[in-house]
């Protein structure tokens, strides 16, 4: 009757689970209610960004039509079958509890994207990635403020807040949302706006995964001709002896609305050896960009790959991070200040891990720094539950390897770096952006000052705790 039973059924047929379709009465009766574009598959194979602590479901339902999401959730809730929504499959936290009793509802085929006539609004479905939306905007002579990794689903990132290179001008992704098409935990569909349901809107914009399944959204867009839709960016490579100078310059640099930057510790693509890479971003000309980032450029990079490039290539420098598979148990720290002594410790820890584990040579410390010029101002109306609008930099330690035998060392490595940075973060208490967090943090570190209100709302909007795979509030 339930998922367990169709798994047993599949096993009895003696065929590889990944190649067989589910044959239980639950799956069969569900299948007859769904469009022919939606498929149900028993699985052993669910490709995600990180294999570490990845959910291993009993079945994957790949949605072909948006309307089917509500039907699947209604049926799953009725039969008490746990479910997890997956779009890009990039979520790396270890909070998933889904096992073979549960299902993954795979949204990745829902990619419809439509602009209104004057290109001031875009509506897209849950499977649209940053790349999908950016490419569509480019083709429409428009700019949508999406996030920095091409493979991540826009809504996946947005429901946790949604950082963006251009957030200094346009605000966080949640600040660009106009309306959400939501399915609740019982499978009832509703359209939610800040006006129609301010309380639920507040909860969805920062803690979305706990409050509803968003199947599509309408978002702000800015019409702008392709020829004007450009920015100055590119990699600067520094010798590690300049590390303290670079960190101090970042700490002292106020990121104006048009500015954003990343700093990486990663293998230099040219030499394969650990290097300090900086990726400045300026929404404007090269001339002004160089002025704004002069304090970093003046330190003297070994190589300067910056240039003015079009909007549809801004994320390209990060494409290597999108590679799926491998084990990547990641850790994060939200930073208001960048301390050179702490970062020297981080560098030493990073190079030691890199040198001792040749299979972990893609291991990266990625730190993204954003202008808070617009985000720190409270947004109009009811606001949102995202608690860290005044954070400048988000450090993420990404150990990257394949052997589970390296897990304990990798976890220790990530925790050591998190503790070096936490001591000098400049925040009143340790803070972790939900989309970057590991899963072992106290909830107050994830939800900040929004926690107690979110926990109250959870009792109202998901009393049966069905939406409980991503940093569950209850
Ligand atoms: C599984 O279902 C899909 C979609 O309904 C179908 O195309 C495929 O042939 C099925 N595979 C098997 C092994 O029955
Ligand atoms: C664009 O069209 C929308 C309706 O789709 C309208 O509300 C808005 O005022 C228009 N904006 C401009 C700048 O023309
Ligand atoms: C595009 O850029 C050109 C040249 O800098 C400028 O003259 C024009 O006003 C810009 N157009 C828009 C719509 O921003
Ligand atoms: C990492 O090691 C593999 C296997 O030795 C090698 O093929 C690859 O080029 C290395 N990658 C980097 C970034 O050095
Ligand atoms: C789902 O249905 C149950 C039983 O009727 C009800 O107690 C619960 O509040 C409903 N949940 C939502 C999110 O409406």
From TrEMBL:
Per the record, the domain of life is Eukaryota
List the InterPro entries hit by this protein, alphabetically. BBE, FAD-bd_PCMH, FAD-bd_PCMH-like_sf, FAD-bd_PCMH_sub1, FAD-bd_PCMH_sub2, FAD-linked_Oxidoreductase, Oxid_FAD_bind_N
Secretion signal: which residues? 1-18
Any GO MF annotation of the entry:
oxidoreductase activity
| Any matching Pfam family | BBE
Q: Which UniProt keywords apply?
A: FAD, Flavoprotein, Oxidoreductase, Signal
Q: Which cofactor does it need?
A: FAD
> Where's the FAD-binding PCMH-type domain?
53-224
Q: Which family does it belong to?
A: Belongs to the oxygen-dependent FAD-linked oxidoreductase family.
What name does the UniProt record give this protein? Answer: FAD-binding PCMH-type domain-containing protein
Source organism of the structure? Xylaria multiplex
Q: What is the lineage of its organism?
A: Eukaryota, Fungi, Dikarya, Ascomycota, Pezizomycotina
């Amino acid at each position: 009757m339930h998922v367990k039973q169709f798994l047993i059924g599949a096993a009895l047929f003696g065929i590889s689970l990944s190649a067989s379709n589910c044959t239980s009465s639950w799956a069969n009766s569900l299948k007859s209610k769904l469009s022919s574009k939606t498929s149900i598959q028993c699985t052993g194979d669910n490709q995600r960004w990180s294999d570490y602590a990845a959910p291993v479901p009993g079945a994957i339902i790949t949605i072909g039509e948006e309307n089917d999401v509500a039907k699947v959730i209604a049926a799953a809730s009725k039969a008490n079958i746990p479910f997890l929504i997956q779009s890009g499959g990039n979520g790396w936290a270890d909070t998933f509890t889904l096992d073979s009793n549960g299902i993954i509802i795979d949204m990745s085929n829902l990619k419809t994207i439509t602009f209104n006539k004057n290109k001031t609004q875009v509506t897209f479905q849950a499977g649209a990635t940053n790349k999908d939306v950016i490419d569509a905007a480019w083709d429409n002579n428009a700019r949508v403020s999406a996030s920095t990794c091409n493979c991540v689903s826009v809504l996946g990132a947005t429901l946790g807040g949604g950082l963006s290179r251009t957030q200094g001008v346009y605000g966080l992704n949640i600040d660009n949302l106009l309306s959400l098409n939501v399915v609740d935990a019982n499978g009832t569909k509703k359209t939610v706006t800040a006006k129609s349901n301010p309380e639920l809107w507040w909860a969805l914009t920062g803690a979305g995964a706990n409050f509803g399944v968003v199947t599509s959204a309408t978002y702000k867009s800015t019409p702008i001709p392709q020829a004007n839709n450009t920015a100055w960016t590119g990699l600067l490579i520094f010798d590690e002896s300049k590390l303290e100078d670079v960190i101090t310059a970042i700490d002292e640099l106020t990121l104006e609305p048009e500015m954003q930057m990343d700093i990486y510790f990663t293998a230099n693509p040219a030499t394969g050896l650990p290097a300090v890479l900086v990726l400045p971003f300026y929404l404007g000309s090269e001339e002004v960009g160089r002025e704004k980032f002069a304090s970093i450029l003046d330190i003297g990079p070994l190589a300067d790959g910056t240039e003015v490039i079009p909007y549809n290539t801004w994320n390209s420098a990060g494409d290597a991070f999108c590679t799926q598979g491998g084990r990547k148990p990641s850790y994060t720290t939200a930073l208001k200040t960048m301390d050179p002594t702490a970062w020297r410790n981080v560098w030493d820890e990073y190079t030691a891990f890199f040198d001792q584990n040749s299979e972990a040579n893609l291991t990266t410390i990625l730190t993204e720094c954003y202008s808070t010029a617009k985000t720190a101002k409270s947004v109009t109306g009811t606001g949102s539950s995202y608690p860290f609008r005044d954070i400048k930099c988000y450090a993420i330690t990404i150990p990257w390897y394949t052997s589970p035998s390296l897990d304990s060392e990798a976890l220790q490595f990530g925790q050591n770096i998190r503790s070096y940075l936490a001591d000098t973060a400049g925040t009143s208490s340790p803070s972790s952006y939900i989309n970057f967090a590991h899963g072992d943090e106290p909830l107050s570190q994830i939800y900040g000052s929004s926690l107690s209100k979110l926990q109250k709302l959870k009792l109202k909007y998901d009393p049966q705790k069905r939406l409980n795979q991503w940093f569950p509030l209850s």
